[in-house]
Amino acid sequence: MVRLKPTDEAMTVHAFVKGMFPGPFSESLLRLYPKTFTEIRSRALAHIVADDRVTEKQGLIGPMRPQAAGRPQPMRVHEETTEKKGAGKPYERTQAGKRTRRDPPPKHNFRVELKELIAISNIAARLKVPAKTDREMGPNKNAWCEFHQANGHYICNCLVLAHQLDEMVKSRFLKDYLQEPQNDQALVTAGVDQGHEVPIHGEVNTISGGFLGGGCTASQRKKYTWEVMAVEVQQVDQTPVVDLLFTKADLQDVIPHDNDPVVISLVTAGRTVHRVLVDQGSSADVMFWTTFNKLQLSTDQLRPYTECLYGFAGDQVEVCGHIELRTTLTDGTTSRTTNIKYVVVNAALAYNILLGRPTLNRIGAVASTRHMKMKLPSLEGVVITIKSDQKEAKKCYENSLKTKRGVFAVTTQPPREEGITRAEIAWEKQPEPVGDIVEREIGGKMFKLGQSLSQELQDQVAKVIARHLDAFVWSASDMHNIDPDFLCHRLTMDPQVRPVRQRRRKFNEERRQVVREEMKKLLKACHIREILYPEWLANVVLVKKANEKWRMCVDFTDLNKACLKDSYPLLSIDALVDSTSGCRLFSFLDAFSSYNQIMMHLRDECKTTFMTELSCYCYKVMPFGLKNACATYQRLVDKVLVPMLGRNVQAYVDDMVVTSQQKKQHVADLEELFTTIAKYRLNLNPEKCVFGVEVGKFLGFLLTEQGIEANPEMYVAIIAMKSPISVKEV
Q1: Where are the beta strands (DSSP E) in 311-444?
Q2: Is the dihedral of CA 162, 168, 171, 174 positive or negative?
Q3: Is residue 107 within 8 Å of residue 188, measured between CB atoms?
Q4: How many CA atoms lie within 13 A of 576 on its CB side?
Q5: Tens of pLDDT along 154-173?
Q6: How would you classify residue 152: left for phi > 0, otherwise alpha for psi between -120 and 50, otherwise beta?
Q7: Is 0.70 surpassed by the pTM of this model?
Q8: With contact defined as beta carbons under 8 Å apart, do 640 and 569 qualify?
Q9: 3-state class of 79 per DSSP?
Q10: 107 pLDDT band (50/70/90 cuts)?
């Protein structure tokens, strides 16, 4: 340890001014040199206040200098509108001399070298050769570009030539000079050589948050910073100044290890807690919920904590609250007791407590993983040496490897896949009957009928179904599509948004197999087609259905943000349910792959492109996940069933119910429905259709002859709720 002697104030002021970064505050100190360090603090506080006022004023009155009018540049989805000066790509300039941001073109593999390719007469005739110049066209002075005839970069890194060649490749002008790609990595990004900056794809964080820095909110931390800079006299630290040294003697009782962590024991709440990890990378002292319960602490002692902790991968950790406990650290002979604010989280981890920087800095503790010890001074000035329990450290490390990754991502619901709405995740919740049903063979196929129907009425319903068997399909390949001239799905795009190509995601073997099977079904049903050179490109997303099977969707997040919202009005659920009150018979119908029955407009098919491990495909039919798909399907239902809606049919998107006030009238109502949907080739799914039941669930309500009743699934949780036993549970 190095100890500096007190210096005079003039030397401190000179060192502070010399070490300041260049800026307005540094210039003010050089113009009017401060005499004391107290003067520097007061002037720094005044500078902060003035800077905040200037920023607030600029935000109120807007920019002072009017911007030159010009043609608005197209924007990317998720692209920031403010950019740094000089952020343009090299060797690209517009006619006005300003740099533009262009995506680097894909690098194509040609059969000949680029300098030989541009020498071919028919290719050279189509190239726009730039004017010769004496200036350097890049950072590499020794590099030579045969296209620009100038130094600065190699021809393989010339973006101007790459863009022109890419246009020729897209027009298939250079198809005879292209090599066949040997693997998935054949097309790589051009224009970036080894000397360019490597892009940053993410961050690796430590646990951050807690009470470090003045509080858990931004205003508290800012106020704390101002108070530190405004104090006239620095507070005196009450911790005794003791030299904490680690020597060779501390290594004598250490078992040879492979980078074991420092795991100690402490005493809190009248109990000894083992498996306490000394974590210098954590900005909070963390206690886990299992430890909180084992200490038999009451939830009434928990104080609210509104913020979240952030884990190693940047994931938010939901906090149950915080509690302040008297904690004792001892080595068996000497001890030190202090108050520690523990942030209580409900997460699974091999440790009981994480001792972070707030406590380590306050008590002046230093941990050494080489010596497997933590040393801290006592209030009497004696060094306390706490040994790490290496056996517990190894057990904790092995248990942490067995636990599931992402333990800090504490959620109360299953994580939602990006780009998939909550309604589509719960898509499997369709109208269903309540009561006994009977299966009956009609035309060689099985259908579901209500058991409460009389034999005569069952025969009449079966005859109606037999006459309209073409309204049902049992596979996607047999499905008919709605006439595009009658209705098709169009994408209304914002003209200022540029296409987005998502980065490819990887799946494990199980999910890859699911994608392969779904692709075979889509190709067999002619719902998709292969596409080359797509502008929009999205990833495949797999979502768990209610029956534990996988549903393959596409992440249309970027495409949806570029589309304008279709404000087609949906019907009121309360009004639909009220209109079914008093009906004696119901038939619940479900469309077969409802969205896929509507065709995409021909010019919008390429915008629904998604990637797989084999190729890129686009949808010929309207897929799940598009922004206005629900409105388009509701428009279809309203057009098809317009003569029956509100009279004997109720429909909300793909949920359809045929209602009849009299049982004998139900056969005629079914006949009218089948005749109506046959005109537009709307297909039904026989596995989810039930005919002639007296009770059924529709849009979360229970429909009966007596009226609307409460759905037992909705109030069973309230009935099973236990009585509160504490003030917090109330």
Answers
A1: 316-317, 319-330, 335-345, 353-355, 366-368, 373-377, 383-387, 432-433, 437-442
A2: negative
A3: yes
A4: 20
A5: 888 888 888 888 888 888 78
A6: left
A7: no
A8: no
A9: coil
A10: confident
